[in-house]
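[09:14] KT: can someone run the structure on this one? pasting the chain below
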Amino acid sequence: MLRFAVIVPFCLYIWWTVMPYYAEVMGPLSATAFRWVLRMPVEGYSVDTGGLMNTRTVLSFRLEDGSNPGIQMGHLFSNIAPYVALVLATTGITLKRRLFILAIGPAILFIGHLLFLIAAFALMERIEGATQIPTALGQLLITMPFLLWVVLAYWEKLLGLLTAGTAASSSEKAEESVT
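[09:31] RB: done, structure tokens below
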């Protein structure tokens, strides 16, 4: 925990520094998905930075009707930084495995961010009356790094526990059938 506490501020600083660039990647991908998958009349996107260390970066979309809905990325999409900090702070994993975990986890989080954007804008009218939906999805995104870290960093141990439990259960059943 101490290693994580020392590493996470650096990861957050770096992440918030690159947040506008991340938004520049998310913008065209999500705008394309809006146009082609959801058939939304999106003409383009814009990224507005603000706040301390870009924490109020907003990704907005220009619609044909002149509206410009946007989403603040700082809170929802800052979960990559704690994920990286967790992986870097974890002891007992090889460099090769650590690099794999550092590649696959952020890729999964990126896909989650993209899907969240698509869902949020596709369901925008329904969400306005029921904020529980985006709140629940946002909470899922915020906690996803911890689940990914546990699964990716400790996969072998988790499988060992599951197979040990299954093997013990099987041997108990075998002993019962013999008696």
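[09:33] KT: thanks! The longest helix spans residues 2-36.
[09:34] RB: yep, looked fine to me
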